[in-house]
Design brief:
Structural class: alpha+beta
Strand content: 15-25%
Radius of gyration: 28 Å
Largest sheet: 6 strands, antiparallel
Number of strands: 20
Shape: globular
Helix content: 25-40%
Low-confidence stretches: 1-5, 181-197
Bound molecules: the ligand Nc1nc2c(c(=O)[nH]1)N[C@H]1C(S)=C(S)[C@@H](COP(=O)(O)O)O[C@H]1N2, molybdenum atom
Mean pLDDT: 91
């Protein structure tokens, strides 16, 4: 037996013990994942929150612009690593403590398991997650150090190898179990909405109209996106229950109020096609999509909003965005998407849709509408963005193909100008010297009363259109596109990057007809 009077332990032993600690950490993180899946109580979720909070804003902005969703994955990978090492240090520390007190092998394990469980519980507030972490840690710790009373307290190479094997096994099992339990409650797939069989005939009708008005070009999303982009500040999204959810009206109001989910959904509902675009989108990027949303207009939910300058929307992920009251008055509170409950990643159970404005104020997991007397900065504005305003006008170019007829080229894409609408799209096939008008898809239908199916507007007030243009060309040339919005204003030509007010410029692309 060792005692605490033995001051020096061989370096090799200490290295092996540290490595076993990390393996125990891996077991704990995997155990937590096996128990709760991609849930906010998964141990890496709060750690990811700190990683984001401690990362300088300039780095976050750079990551959004240059790495896109890869940046988010890297951030989460870093959080996983920090969690593994952090729990590993706790495990190794508790073991060292047990050794110093000459505890017997069973007590040493128990102390490690308890320490890991307690730390996980404190970090996540999730009992199930803590139990999973403790079990995962226990399995690895037991593999490294056998329970026999005669077992040496020292970690040897064979113990270390057993720990690595156990950690690998627990990680594999965790990945399998956790991924199964952590799947989204709903999906934004239009396919599954339309083939679900239990969908609303009014919704079916609107989605069929959208598909009939879609211009059929290769590589292009239809008018209702097949997959909707997702951008938010979370590595693990909130997982809210309808029963516990409520929407509070607070701040500069005569009387604060709250609505629960039943109250909200018992109000007359409306279906609306709405496009969202992220202010961090690339000029010809794809962080722009359209869906059919069901919900309640703010004007029906809160007809008597006070005459203050602004509002702050707050959400369950501690996200907050401020913008003018006028924009909220035209807003919409959505709880269904393409005929299905709002998917978790898009704000389940309820999100805001603010016509014509950048995605960032379309707050997901919405819990509070705070009326303000003075403007203040929201989450992204505190980080240098100015993303609360109306979107810029843009025509994207995502489809270039040969029509099949010799020497004929067809180009196309989507065009969007928020509530200003698209008047026309112009295409140049000579680098911007001469321009021709593209064909536009018919506008999507306007808002529809969900009960009666009656139209409340003729055309969607905040949705993209598709454009297409066909021409003859034999030699390489440069295609440029630009949109004119519903007020007659031409899309801004000066190229500017997304930060801080959204990208501007005309999309152009070199086309070689011989390579199509
Ligand atoms: N609660 C919450 N709402 C949010 C965000 C967020 O991080 N948290 N991100 C915003 C941003 S920047 C955009 S572009 C849109 C994206 O909506 P989507 O993920 O449904 O496409 O959500 C907005 N709403
Ligand atoms: Mo965004």
């Amino acid at each position: 037996m060792e005692s605490n009077s033995t001051p020096r332990r061989p370096v090799r032993t200490r290295v092996l013990e540290g490595a076993v600690g990390v393996a125990v950490g891996l077991g704990a993180v995997s155990g937590s994942y096996a128990a709760v899946g991609a849930d906010p109580t998964f141990i890496a979720a709060p750690v990811a929150g700190w990683v984001t909070a401690l990362t300088p804003d300039a780095v976050i902005t750079w990551a959004i612009l240059t790495l896109g969703s890869l940046g988010q994955s890297l951030g989460f990978a870093l959080a996983l690593g920090v969690s593994v090492v952090g729990v590993g240090v706790v495990a190794a520390g508790s073991r060292a403590l047990a050794r110093a007190t000459d505890a017997d092998p069973l007590v040493r394990h128990a102390l490690t398991v308890l320490a890991v469980g307690a730390v996980t519980l404190v970090l996540t507030g999730g009992l199930l997650s803590a139990v999973g972490a403790a079990l995962g840690a226990g399995v690895v710790s037991l593999s490294a150090h056998r329970l026999r009373p005669t077992a040496p307290a020292r970690t040897d190479r064979r113990g270390f190898l057993r720990a690595v094997a156990a950690a690998a096994a627990v990680t594999g099992a965790g990945a399998l179990l956790g991924t199964r339990s952590g799947t989204d409650s709903a999906t934004s797939d239009v396919e599954s909405a339309t083939t679900g069989g239990d969908t609303d005939p009014v919704v079916d009708d609107l989605l069929s109209t959208a598909s009939a008005r879609t211009l059929d070009l290769p590589d292009l999303d239809p008018l209702v996106s097949r997959e909707f982009y997702q951008v938010d500040i979370n590595s693990v999204d909130p997982d809210l229950s309808v029963a516990a959810w409520s929407l509070r009206l607070t701040g500069a109001v005569d009387e604060p109020r709250a609505f629960d989910y039943d109250e909200l959904t018992s109000l007359p509902a409306e279906h609306r096609f709405v496009t969202l675009q992220c202010v961090g989108d690339g000029l010809n990027g794809k962080k722009i999509d359209t869906a059919l949303w069901t919900g309640v207009p703010i004007a029906d939910l809160l007809p008597d909003l006070p005459d203050e300058c602004c509002v702050m929307l707050r959400a369950a992920d501690d996200y907050y965005e401020e913008f003018p009251m006028g924009a909220l008055r035209n807003g919409f509170i959505a709880y269904r998407m393409n005929g299905r409950p709002l998917p978790r990643g898009h704000g389940y159970p309820v999100r805001a849709l603010i016509p014509g404005h950048w995605g960032e104020i379309n707050v997901k997991w919405l819990t509070e509408i705070e009326v303000l007397e003075e403007p203040v900065d929201g989450y992204w504005e505190e980080r240098g963005w100015h993303g609360t305003g109306p979107v810029n006008t843009v025509a994207k170019l995502h489809s270039v193909s040969s029509t099949g007829d010799d020497g004929r080229v067809r180009v196309g894409g989507h065009a969007y100008a928020g509530t200003r609408g698209i008047e026309r799209v112009e295409v140049s096939t000579d680098g911007g010297t001469s321009w021709a008008e593209a064909t536009l898809s018919e506008p999507l239908p306007g808002a529809v009363d969900a009960q009666t199916g009656e139209a409340r507007r003729e055309e969607a007030e905040d949705a993209w259109r598709m454009w297409a243009y066909e021409y003859a060309a034999a030699d390489p040339h440069e295609v440029v596109v630009r949109a004119v919005d519903g007020t007659g204003q031409l899309q801004e030509e000066t190229e500017r990057r997304a930060f801080p007010r959204g990208p501007t410029g005309w999309v152009s692309r070199r086309v070689d007809p011989r390579r199509l």
